Amino acid sequence: MAKSQWSFKTAVELSAALRNKQVSAVELAEDTIGRIERHDGKVNAVCVRDFERGLAAARAADAAIARGEHKPLLGIPMTVKESYNVAGLPTTWGFLPQKDFVPPEDALPITRVKDAGGVILGKTNVPVGLADWQSYNEIYGITNNPYDLGRTPGGSSGGSSAALAAGYGALSLGSDIGGSLRVPAFHCGIYAHKPTFNLLASRGHTAPPAAPLSYERDLAVIGPMARGAADLSLLLDVMAGPDPQEAGKAYRLELPAARHTSLKDFRILVIDSDPVMPADKAIRGTIDKLASNLDKAGAKISRSSPLLPDFAASSRLYMRMLLSFLAANFPPEVYAGACAAAAALPAGDNSLQAERLRGIALSHRDWVHASVARTRLRAQWRELFNAFDAVICPIMPTPAYPHDHAPDQEQRRILIDGEPRVYTDQLAWPGIATLPGLPATAIPTGFAPDGLPVGVQIVGPWLEDRTPLKLAELIEREFGGFVPPTMFDD
Hints:
Blueprint: H1 11-19, H2 25-43, E1 46-49, H3 51-66, E2 77-81, H4 108-115, E3 119-124, E4 136-137, E5 141-142, H5 158-165, E6 171-176, H6 182-188, E7 191-194, E8 221-226, H7 229-239, E9 267-270, H8 281-296, E10 300-302, H9 311-326, H10 332-343, H11 352-360, H12 364-387, E11 390-393, E12 413-416, E13 419-422, H13 428-434, E14 440-447, E15 453-459, H14 466-479
Parallel strand pairs: 2-3, 2-6, 9-10, 9-11
Antiparallel strand pairs: 1-3, 4-5, 6-8, 7-8, 7-14, 11-15, 12-13, 14-15
Helix pairs in contact: 2-3, 5-6, 7-14, 9-11, 9-12, 9-13, 10-11
């Protein structure tokens, strides 16, 4: 079966086609299933298939459409990250001991997607514990980048980004604490949105075998992934809102409208690199080209500002707070060894690697001090967004790199313009939005000279998610967006 005209359409386009009776939900589901069956032996993005129930949902969607019903995702084929609980399907987070864990009920975001008419056809691959920018584990194997099978698709939502790039449905759900939405979007040339912290309730996005409760998860968010910018808002609105099980939060938050609806009205700060984590020539080039295009379109572009918080200081703070949170789940022997290594650090070592070690050993007293520093950082960002509407900056310093599964990530290296850099230092660019809890939209901007996708993130003001999302739409409309990988264009 050859590629149909619907294989790479956006959810907005598919929804219109369904309403106009140009295609049925069953036809869309069958097209997606056909693509997975033809191509996923090479990509390995969809690690858990749910075709039978997906087709049943598609048939129900067609019946609803025939009755004249309208729902935001009615009949739209999609996937979800393996880390979301879906009743009757395994949720492992890549942990081998949990390979047989099957939750009895859907996560709250899954319930909201199904209630909106979404047709879920499978779950997508992840790294162990969602803790890498590569997506592989002993249960499901390695996921490859559809633009170059020898390279990472990103992580931890790498299965979702690869699925979207390969045409396996129009939407997917991911999550992000260290760039896990934005990094795979960047490496696979698609769109993703890291929402304002705590905007989307994530009950049921829980590591097994923990109960699906509303846990306090500092820094972590869930969010939408798509092949078109407008689709992000479509899915965000479906997922948005607090958990009704949380006392005092049974309300729906109305997000402010985008600050502007025309490119010429946006005030944009553009940052293409920083000594803390330099971006390579390909990344700097795509950012410079975008800045030039925006300037020609009438946007007010600045290339520096004293209002931008100190990137080195905020990156060090992010490393400490992130690892303090993550280390709570480290095995006792790993935690003890890291604490001993942290105690042996020279006082003057302020490398990002040293700050991660210190974060593992952080006392509660020191964490409180760090939290105060984060509060001051948020105030700095508020001041910046009085002068600017958005900040455009790198997501990662290089395009997708070859698979590297060395067990100690701190010992891995990436090459930036030929210079080796510590793999985990790449956290700095995702952290620019994660630490203060700001919304950030990942968009594709084209390709590096070697044919790999590149892109940027658009960081917006607190709770003003619609501003970077609207800017993403305007950039896509004016300069283009997703381009399918040639090896899967059938």
